[in-house]
């Protein structure tokens, strides 16, 4: 009988748990690691993750391990699903534990505020040169855990690694496509959260369907403009990691980022919204990263992201932000989408 693929999952949040469950169902030998050993004990005893993925049972075969060396022993593949601002601290704990050639699949969607690095850049800077693959696309954990159909994209410079990821994750209800644009897929996954906050604000203000459609469409243009300026391929933004995830996140009742925006549109402060949330809304951090000192100024026009930053961090009233967006000087629809293009 063929040996089972051994997979280490870093992260006990809703997405790490849903993917660990899927991988066990696909026949892998999966061990889940968390920065919080008491949470592992609870998950192991209850066979459930009540904190982050309530109402979903976890298979008996899923193993839990708090010690990095025990967790990483003999693994063929590692899946990293740690929120961006905690990622560096977590991966340094695996510096000696995880074999140098074990591929890492990153399912984290964000940018590090202090360094402006993408998750795979953080992993590479702490764990050195090794195969790295980005997994992104429209995929709320709550739906994947219920076995509802979802399609994602696995992006890696090395197609053989992307194929390994497809083989591990593909199931009757989970379909993974390949891409050779990890920068584009990773940036799309991070940036759509910022636009989702804007979409939530629009919902909270009751601006209607036309405004929401405009936000998604113009949001996609600015995501692509930023991505292309950072070495991503334009077409990636029209795929699952770009348009696909933008639609899901901006319209779903499951989206934390959209919910943050909606509460703010209804008049709550960011501090109050975050204080009431146990889960992460990466878009808040990504907005901070985009306009932080390490970003060295966003080189392309990102008016929606600018207004999200103004509302979240500069005390600008959401209605004022909408007025600012609507009253910008007239421009061509695809202005600056490709380097040097006027878009006219
Ligand atoms: N939830 C979802 O449906 C999806 C989430 N993602 C991405 O997956 C990543 C993880 O998010 P979720 O699983 O949703 O998290 P979550 O919001 O469900 O849970 C929070 C996570 O943060 C961890 N955490 C909190 N403080 C920490 C610390 N000091 N050190 C280390 N870890 C700490 C917790 O252990 C837990 O794993 C994010 O980048 C998110 O954007 C991507 C696709 C779908
Ligand atoms: O990335 C996601 C769905 O693909 C999750 O979005 P939220 O973090 O907004 O819930």
From TrEMBL:
| Catalytic reaction annotation | sn-glycerol 3-phosphate + NADP(+) = dihydroxyacetone phosphate + NADPH + H(+); sn-glycerol 3-phosphate + NAD(+) = dihydroxyacetone phosphate + NADH + H(+)
* Residues at which NADPH binds: 14-15, 52, 109, 141, 256, 280, 282
Which Enzyme Commission number(s) are on file for it? 1.1.1.94
Q: Which residues bind sn-glycerol 3-phosphate?
A: 109, 137, 139, 192, 245, 255-257
Positions annotated as active site in the UniProt record: 192
Pathway membership, UniProt: Membrane lipid metabolism; glycerophospholipid metabolism
Task: Name one process (GO BP) from the record.
Answer: carbohydrate metabolic process
Q: Where is the Glycerol-3-phosphate dehydrogenase NAD-dependent C-terminal domain?
A: 181-322
Transmembrane segments in this chain: where?
Answer: none
* Compartment(s) where it occurs, according to its Swiss-Prot or TrEMBL record: Cytoplasm
Which PANTHER family does the record match to this protein?
GLYCEROL-3-PHOSPHATE DEHYDROGENASE, GLYCEROL-3-PHOSPHATE DEHYDROGENASE [NAD(+)] 2, CHLOROPLASTIC
Assigned protein family = Belongs to the NAD-dependent glycerol-3-phosphate dehydrogenase family.
Question: Which named protein is this?
Answer: Glycerol-3-phosphate dehydrogenase [NAD(P)+]
Protein's organism: Engelhardtia mirabilis
Q: Which gene encodes it?
A: gpsA
């Amino acid at each position: 009988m063929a040996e089972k693929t051994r997979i280490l999952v870093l992260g006990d949040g809703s997405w790490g748990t849903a993917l660990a469950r899927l991988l066990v169902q696909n026949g892998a030998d999966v061990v889940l690691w968390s920065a919080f050993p008491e949470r592992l004990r609870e998950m192991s005893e209850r066979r459930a993750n009540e904190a982050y993925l309530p109402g979903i049972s976890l298979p008996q075969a899923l193993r839990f391990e708090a010690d990095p060396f025990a967790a990483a022993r003999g693994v063929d593949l590692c899946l990293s699903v740690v929120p961006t601002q905690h990622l560096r601290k977590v991966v340094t704990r695996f510096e000696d534990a995880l074999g140098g050639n074990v591929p890492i699949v990153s399912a984290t969607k964000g940018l590090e505020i202090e360094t402006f690095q993408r998750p795979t850049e953080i992993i590479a800077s702490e764990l050195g040169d090794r195969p790295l693959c980005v997994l992104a696309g429209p995929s709320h954990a709550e739906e994947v855990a219920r076995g509802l159909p979802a399609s994602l994209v696995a992006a890696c410079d090395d197609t053989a690694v992307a194929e390994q990821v497809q083989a591990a994750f593909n199931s009757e209800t989970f379909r993974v496509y390949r891409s050779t644009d990890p920068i584009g897929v990773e940036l799309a996954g991070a940036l759509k959260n910022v636009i989702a906050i804007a979409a939530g604000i629009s919902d909270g203000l009751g601006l209607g369907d036309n405004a929401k459609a405009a936000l998604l469409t113009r949001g996609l243009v600015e995501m692509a403009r930023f991505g292309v300026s950072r070495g991503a391929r334009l077409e990636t933004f029209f795929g699952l990691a770009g348009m696909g995830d933008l639609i899901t996140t901006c319209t779903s009742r499951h989206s934390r980022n959209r919910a943050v925006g909606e509460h703010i549109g209804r008049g709550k402060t960011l501090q109050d919204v975050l204080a009431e949330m146990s889960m992460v809304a990466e878009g808040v951090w990504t907005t901070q990263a985009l306009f932080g000192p390490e970003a060295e100024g966003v080189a392309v026009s990102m008016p929606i992201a600018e207004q999200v930053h103004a509302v979240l961090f500069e005390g600008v009233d959401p209605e004022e932000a909408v007025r600012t967006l609507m009253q910008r000087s007239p421009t061509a629809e695809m202005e600056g989408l490709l380097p040097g293009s006027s878009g006219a």
